[in-house]
Amino acid sequence: MTDLATQLAGACIAAFEAEGLDARWGAVKQSDRPELADFQCNGCMGAAKQAKMNPRELAAKIAPRIAEHEAVSRVDIAGPGFLNIVVTDAALSGAAEFVRSDTKAGGGAAPNPEKIVVDFGGPNVAKPMHVGHLRSAVIGDTLVRLLRFLGDDVTGDVHLGDWGLQMGLLLVAVEEEQPDLLYFDQSYQGPFPAESPVNMEDLSRIYPMASGRSKTDEAYAKRAQEAVAEMQAGRAGYRALLQHFIDVSVAALKTDYAFLDVSFDLWKGESDVDHLIPDVVQLFKDKGLAVESDGAVIVDIARQGENVAVEGKDQLKNPMPPIMLLNSRGGTGYHTTDLATIKDRVDTINPDRILYVVDARQAMHFEQVFRAADKAGLFAYDHLEHPGFGTVNGQDGKPFKTREGGTLRLADLNAMALEEATKKIGEANLSGDIGPDEKAEIGKLVARAALRFADLQNQRTTNYVFDLERFTSFEGKTGPYLLYAAVRIKAILRRAAEQGFEAGTIAIAAAEERKLVLALDGFALALRLAREKRMPHYVCEHVFSLAQAFSAFYAACPVLKDGVEPHVKASRLGLCEAVLKQLETGLGLLGITAPERM
Ligand code: ARG
To answer: Hey, which of 117, 344, 355, 358 would you mutate to test ligand 1's pocket, going by the most ligand atoms within 8 Å of its Cβ?
Structure first.
């Protein structure tokens, strides 16, 4: 069983093919004019043009063929040859029953499942995460959930930034504070203590200090650079300390991510592929792609005759600048670690595809890496994707800053959202007799729903304005509104059970019931589009319109009121079950969980 739109497309395709015409004309979608029909097929105009026929005459041949399908009650021909399809109440009843019984709530499956690595999160060790990292975490986690749900074999990897200059800054700063530590004794090779000499508080204090100082103190910056180079070259004490920095940071990161219900299969970082760098450099050398330039090793990736902007990537430079595999000190940077990471993923996972959920402003970096990987035969260019995202802006339209002018930390953001959500729950006064522990739990769920939905509902590539007041509102297109919708259905079902009513066979009759089932029927398409385009907002649109259709249904069609006939009551309860199941499934893909009550 599939959704009605797919079933009808099957009938339409067969009808066009029976007339000797191409299958592609048989596409079907929900009607733009719901007052006239449920579905429409617009293929007659194009098909007739190509076959040099009269479109209305063609429509008159196609329509009766479609009308034979058992789900169809009527096919009307409108205007120049639109086919308006009305389905039977029985077909809609069946569609609702399907959603109610299907383990995927009607969400369907990917036609071409793949093995995919999703690289997202990308926090940097010791540097606090900022709102940009929020986007990567939330969008990446949602894509992982969605792809996995549709049948792809997915591995999510956090890809920690733990190999760059920030590590050198930390090493130098810690050495200055605690010069006697074993880690700084060059002659000492280990073993080193299991306990870290610094905690997260130390790191959060030290990093901004060191980073600030390096901007004015040249000698200090140089020492940091040297420290990174030595660390990369394998100095034992530095490596041991690096591991402590990573462990301490990861523990803090896990807390921030847990608040958003973001998780990763792999907690690998740039430092984990260090051992592969010589092989990767050799690979480029063997293929004659690596060139020495002022002591550095570079790879040219410009394409012949490249003087126009790469399609859809207007921020890219032309011709594309070369990448540096090794700098003159033999150290490596962002390109090299990304290439070595591709090799690691091939060796350990062998995926069909890798997705990098990273700020759109890194488009050029990824274009360079993808070209280089392809040239070296590491990974095919077309199977590397960078689903980039826009920035989170303040009310002034510029990238979001705190009142003090700094970037907001994810931990503070979570705390702010929790505070605002708790306030809103209090104002809405929804939670009558709920005890303090449950209230606190609900507050977290509302805050998470607010942050995640506010981010995901935007088309991924656009920027959005950070407005916690709006995000946490129970009205409008928000996470809390959707939680409220789910909680309301749960309350209806609970009341029904208390009164001894059970859900029964769904029999669609009222106009609002029809609309509600058509909303349910759109789930598979929404998920398909979200997967194809790597755009979670299709899922958001779907759950929002489903919640709205439910509200309209509930206002027009009493469920538990006295006087509702028993079979109608049972049918409407069945419909409530189907809607709740799909709503919670859709929200689950967005990483949003509804409480039992609030
Ligand atoms: N750590 C990087 C940053 O904060 C993001 C890493 C993205 N992933 C990657 N494979 N380059 O900008």
So the answer is: 358
338 lines ligand 1 (CB under 6 A): yes
pLDDT 10s digits, 82-111: 999 999 999 999 999 999 999 999 999 999
Q: pTM of the predicted model, to two decimals?
A: 0.95
Q: 10 Å Cβ neighbour count for 69?
A: 19
Is residue 151 a contact partner of residue 113, using CB atoms and an 8 Å limit? yes
Domains 115-158+269-392 and 410-589 share a fold: no
The per-residue pLDDT for 318 is: 67
- Residue that has been written with the tokens 């439910």 in this structure: 550
Contact call for residues 117 and 346 (beta carbons, < 8 A) = no
Q: Report domain 115-158+269-392's class.
A: alpha beta
Instruction: Decide: 159 in ligand 1 pocket, CB within 6 A.
Output: yes
Domains of the chain by residue range = 4-87, 115-158+269-392, 165-259, 410-589
Tens of pLDDT, residue by residue over 479-529, are 999 999 999 999 999 999 999 999 999 999 999 999 999 999 999 999 999
Residue keyed to tokens 């900022």: 130
Q: Answer whether 335 contacts ligand 1 (Cβ < 6 A).
A: no
- The architecture of the domain spanning 4-87 is 2-Layer Sandwich (3.30)
Residue nearest to atom 6 of ligand 1 (CA): 122
Specify the residue with its C-alpha closest to ligand 1, atom 7.
Answer: 122
> Regarding the domain delimited by 410-589, which CATH topology (the fold level of the hierarchy) does it fall under?
Isoleucyl-tRNA Synthetase; Domain 1 (1.10.730)
- Residues 6+ away with beta carbon under 8 Å from 546: 519, 520, 523, 579, 582, 583, 586
Ligand 1 atom closest to the CA of 341, numbered from 1: 10
